[in-house]
Amino acid sequence: MRLDREFVRLPLVFDADRLAAEVAQFEESDWHPHPQGHPGNSALPLIAVHGDPDDDSVIGAMRLTPYLDACPYLRQVLGAFQAVWGRTRLMRLDGNAEATAHCDTNYYWSQHARVHVPVVTTGEVRFLCGDAAVHMAAGEAWIFDTWRVHNVLNPRPTRRIHLVADTVGSAHFWELVERGKAGAAPEPVAYDALRAVTLATENVNHPIVMAPAEQEALLALVLDDIPAGAGVFREIVERLRRDWRAAYARFGEEPAGLPLYRQLLDRAERALRPLTGELRLRNRIDAADAVRSLVLRPALMPVSPNDAARPRVMPRAKRLERPIFLVCSPRSGSTLFFETLAQSPDVWTVGGESHKIIESIPSLHPEARRYHSNRLAAADATDDVVRRLEDAFVRELRDRDGNRPPRNAAGLRLLEKTPKNSLRVPFLAAAFPGALFVYLYRDMRDTISSMLDAWRSGKFITYPQLPGWEGPPWSLLLTPGWRELSGKRLAEVVAAQWSTATRYLLDDLEQLSPDRWCVAGYDELLRDPQQEIDRLSRFLEIGFDKTLPASLPLSRTTLTAPDREKWRRNAADLDVALPLVSSVAERARDLFASPPKQARRTAAAVPAAPARTHSVKKRDDKPAATDFRSVFTNTFAELLDRSGASLLISTYQSGRLIMARIVDGKLNTHFRAFPSPMGIAVNSRTLTLGTKAFVWHFRNHPGLLTRPTTEGEASAEPKPDAVYVPSAAYGTGDIRVHELAYTREGLVIVNTRFSCLATIDPVNSFREVWRPPFITALAPEDRCHLNGVAVAEGAVRYVTALGHSDEPNGWRARKADGGIVIDVASNEIIATGLSMPHSPRVYDGKLWALESGEGRLVTIDPASGEKTVVAEVPGFARGLAFAGPFAFIGLSQVRESVFDGIPIARRPERHCGVWAVDTRDGRIAGFLRFEGSVQEIFDVQLLPGLRCPDVLEPGDDQVGAAFVLPEPQG
After folding, report:
1. Using CA atoms in the order 457, 462, 465, 468, what is the torsion angle rounded to 10 degrees?
2. Position 220 pLDDT exceeds 60
3. How far apart are CA 751 and CA 749, in angstroms?
4. pLDDT at position 645, please?
5. Are 46 and 619 in contact (CB under 8 A)?
6. Cβ(889)–Cβ(873) under 8 Å?
7. Among 349, 392, 431, 597, which is disulfide-ready with 381 (CB 3.0 to 4.6 Å)?
8. What angle do CA 612, 618, 622 make, to 5 degrees?
């Protein structure tokens, strides 16, 4: 709920010891993982939908759980507010953890104040909201502005537990709030053993049809926060508001109005789609997404109006129990997954897809909906439809050997895959309450390319006589909004088809409990079929008794044999399609990297490539002054682990040197502070780091590998396999040190400010060793923005610069396309027309570089200057290292004030971190993404053979004890 200030302390105080004693009665098994799987966060439900502790939803009649029944004082605490309660939990945060920074912009939380009563805490715990921070002491009562970015930091090893209760309030509750704002003294509320409390809980918390007045109030939350000049956005919102009021006056909550309401919402969604990522609210939330979560999604009850409780639960199907639905956009590899999983002895299938089975029921055929789309909602799962659908499925079921089920068999596990079901998740979830869903992810480039091939093949026509369609016979699934695509190029049709299906699918899956769905990867299935199928079998709780070959046979719907380069034949069409789907593609990639957590239902379930999150903890255990966070895919950690290496990453904007290293088989991000660290040169024995005014030399000190630890420190600090100790510092002044490199002749420094290559000089700030032939004077004028150096066979071979200029800052005139590569040996410019090139490297016989302004990894032919694009990455690329066929690329979010006018600045998806790219096909193999204050990366260097290095800051106490003595004589 939005408030006029960050925090309000309410004038009540409770017996924290009594609360802690009641909480202590619960076993560890009573605590549930966080619904979104946030590491270190868990909950114990006190009030939930229908009193079911396993139901984390916020739509339905709220009732006390058995846990709250066992806590008389907790009930008295809630009763003291005299409010109506929604979802209420005990929220637990592990030591040395955080709650994850976020804003609550969904409909439910826009209507509810969130009350916090700390039960177990320490003085170091800080609650952050906007620009403010407070410590909530045990027994106090607080509310805060959930519309602003908020988080909780717990830097101590002690767990923190809060009572967290959502309420729409009451007159008395809001009087308490006003008294709290005025600074009223808190009144103690002691435990009364003779007092029994009856709590008022919600029965209605979601509109059947959102009333116009409520819609206007919610839209005002967004419109008040958008920047000036958002005229198109305001027009879309105003049009929805006016037509919604007209429709409501005509139909109210009558079912006859539902098609019109849905039409208005779909129209608004289509209009907002091009604006996604273009406008940010003051709380940094995307304005279009805020309208979706506040208004478009909750505007209609997602279940039957006659069931205001939970997502519709039909009488349990006796013959089909817990069916399995593989859901994805077309051409995502679902047939290969289906044919492989169908080898389980525990599943039954109809032999293929169920297009005809579902659409044989007249009310489910698109013709009955005037060919709107293949979309089906929960309200379509009537008793009669579910019965007929189940009968149709059972009639066609066969096991893996082709046998029919026994007559009157019950509890059959149906396995089904139909890409049209990407638009039917609410319907299937309501028709089969125990259904499980597997979202199949495949790279959008390959998927869209395959969809183009499918359309052109004529083998996937679904609606050959689609009324009103101008174009080739309609193929694949029928998506909402298809009529607007009539007459457009096939690439645009397919792009809209893919993005619409994927957006609906992700929206619907995220409304389900996390233990009902998981994510699987097409590339993971090809890479290691047995591992991926075994993982899915554990989640689905089915047996799998076959040994799979290392390479699976082609599926029956394969058009052409798999080929990493197959997409290139549709490259021209993909240049049209991919920019149209970028925001949805990023969302799908993020979900694949951080899938839902299913630990409550199946302890053995292991999500594919989950993202882990680490918050930075200073060694003195005090809260960090800035909000550093790292999120990474398992594939990134596994790649680094297989390489037997670690990474050093410099982040000059945030003043940190980051070590990405493997600790106990897991990725660990470790930070050290230096002023504006930039270029790094490294090997197993020495390290050199360029900073704002100094070049620092470090020596690997084996004597510190088994350093002493203080009590309690051993578990917090992993044992390093290298410790780089500062051994010398050379004052260069602010010469804008960029890259550094070791050569046969010693250290080479890219001296950007003086437009030359230099080295350390014991007397002067530096000694010049080379400059571009067009630079006529040694002057601190950054004439060409020399920035990168490539070494081959022990000597400097190539450099990169952002312009061919001899004028002060002259490179800025053509920064978008004026970049060059120079052959130092011949003094020749071998490549021109590059967009801000950085990080040249000679590797595997090729000259590589990052075309930062385009977000690309490229190779350059030194003889012709011809550039070949290997991969595109979502950010300003700078910093490059290699391990086998994989490239580790540093990304920055881009400062528009500095980099305006370059192509990457116009992209909506820009991240900061390190992306791993398979140079054989340009695929993203994994990523390490930084959030918070880390926004720009400069250099990335690989440390082969070192899994867990450490770098000591100059002020570290250990530096004084790091002695290197000569070998004894004689």
Report:
1. -100
2. yes
3. 6
4. 93
5. no
6. yes
7. 431
8. 110
Closest CA to 372 of 423, 430, 329: 423
What's the fold here for domain 612-959?
Answer: Neuraminidase (2.120.10)
Range in 353-357, 562-566, 684-688, 916-920 with the lowest mean pLDDT: 562-566
Say yes or no to pLDDT of 261 above 80: yes
Whether 638 contacts 610, CB under 8 Å? no
Q: Token pair 């609410």 is at which residue?
A: 426
pLDDT number for residue 967: 64
Give me the pLDDT at residue 879, please. 96
pTM, rounded to two decimals: 0.43
Strand order of the sheet with strand 413-417? 347-348, 413-417, 324-327, 436-441, 517-521
Residue 808 near residue 776 (C-beta atoms within 8 A): no
Tokens of 187: 């009144």
d(CA 488, CA 79): 61
| Averaged pLDDT, 630-642 | 85
DSSP letters spanning 266-293 = HHHHHHHGGGTTT-B-TTS-BHHHHHII
Question: What class has domain 7-201?
Answer: mainly beta
Compare 289 and 772 and report the one with higher pLDDT. 772
Contact 777, 810 (CB under 8 A): no
Q: At residue 950, what is the residue type?
A: D
Dist CA 480 CA 370 (whole Å): 12
Beta strand residue intervals within 170-319, DSSP E: 187-189, 200-201
The domain spans of the chain are: 7-201, 216-296, 324-557+565-593, 612-959
Fold of 324-557+565-593: Rossmann fold (3.40.50)
Q: Which two tokens stand for residue 216?
A: 């206007």
CA–CA separation, 903 vs 875, rounded Å?
Answer: 11
Long-range contact pairs involving 701-707 (C-beta distance under 8 Å, separation at least 24)? 701/725, 701/962, 701/964, 703/962, 703/963, 704/958, 704/962, 707/958
Q: Is the pLDDT of residue 859 over 60?
A: yes
Pair 423, 375: CB distance under 8 Å? yes
Dump the DSSP string for 901-943: TSGGGG-S---EEEEEEETTTTEEEEEEEEEET-----EEEEE
As given in the structure block, the two tokens for residue 479 are 């998506």
Task: List, in sequence order, the alpha helices (H) in 377-489.
Answer: 383-396, 425-431, 444-457
Q: Is 663 exposed, middle or buried (CB count within 10 Å of its CB: 0-12, 13-18, 19+)?
A: middle
